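Appendix B. One record, verbatim.
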Amino acid sequence: MRFARAILDRPHKFTIIMLVANLFVFILMWQSSGLTSPALWEFPEDVLLAYGAKLNGLISVHHQWWRFITPMFVHVNLPHLLVNMYSLWMVGPYVEKLYGSAKFVVFWVVTGIAGVVASYLTVRPDAAVGPIGRFLFKAIDVPSAGASGALFGLVGVLFVFGLKFRHELPEGFKRAFGTGMLPIILINLFIGYLGRGFIDNAAHLGGLISGSILALAVDYRRPGERSGVTRAWQVLQATCIGLVAISFFLAYRNPPPASVLRQTVQLQREQIARYLSYVQPISEAQDAFYLGLKDGDFTNLDNAVKALDAAPHLDPESDELKEKLKALLIEVKTLGVPTGVSAKLDAKSVQEKHNALRDGFSAWKKEYDAWLKTNGRNHGGIEVIEASPR
C-alpha cells in the first residue's frame, strides 16, 4: 500500500504536456492543410514534410537533421493521433511517476529519436524481401511520422523496470510490469507484422530496444525518497526540451525544397500509376475467370492472359500471384476446348473440375487480399509510426 500510494500520489505533468504538444502540432497542421474537417484519412505530403516528417532524402541530401526529432510530434491523420495519445495516457503516467519528470522527458525524446534513426536506417530496397525483410525494411523512401517510437520506448522502460526490480515490487506491480508487458509488446509486433509496408516496425523496435537499454542503466525513484533530482538530469531534461524547440524552429525556417516536394509527389504518382497498372489487369482477369467458369464465356481469356503478362513487376509476391491467376485462366480455358480427353468428360468430372477451379480461385483470392492489405501498401503511401499499447 505504501508503494501504491507513493506512485499514485506523484504528479505526471509532463505526460500531459507531451500530449498537449502533440495535439497542438496536429491543430496547426490541420489549419495549414486547409481541410474543412478533421483529417480522417491523411494530411497532404507537403504539410507532413513542412512540419518535420522524416524523409531520408531530406536528411541525407539536404542535411535536415532535425527530422530525426520532429516526427515524434507529427501524425498523419486524426485516428493516428488518437491511438497514440490514448497509448501515451495509458503508459506515460506510470513511467513519469516511477522515474520522475526529468527522466521521463529524457526517455521520451531519446527513444523517439532512436525510433526515427531505426526507420532511417531501414530504407533498404535490397533487404525488403520476404516476410521478415518486409517487416523490418522499407522498399521506398516515403514520409514517416508518429509518436509510437517513443511510446514503444516507454513500454520498454516498464518491461525492464518490472524485471530489474521484481524483488522489491508488490505483487500487483510485478504482474503489471515486467513480464506483464509481454502481451502488449507481442500483440503490437503482430499488428505491425500484419501491417508491414504500412506501419514502420523498425521505428517501434528502435524505440523498444532503446527504452530497455535506458531502463537497465537508470534507477527509479523509490517510495519515501526525496523528490529532488540530480543536476545532471535537470540539464538533460532542459537539453531535450531545447532540442525539440530548436528542431521545430529549424523546420519552420527551412521548409523542404520545392524540388523535393515535386520529386516526392512525382514519385508517388509514378508508384500509384505502376500499382494501378498491376491491379487493373488483375481485376479484369478475375472478371474473365468468372465469365468462363460460370457462364461459359471464354472470349476474354486470351486478352486477360496477355494483360497479365504485360502487368509490371512490383515485388516477388505480386509476380507469384499474377502467375497463379494466369494458370487458373489457362485451366478455365480448357473447359471451352472440347477436344481429346476433355471431350469425353462426363458431367460429374466436369463438375469436379469446376469445383477444383473454384476452390483454387478462392485460395488465390485470400492470398491476393492479404497482399493488398500488407505489401500492396508499399507501392505508394505514407509510413505510419503507429502503436496501440494498452
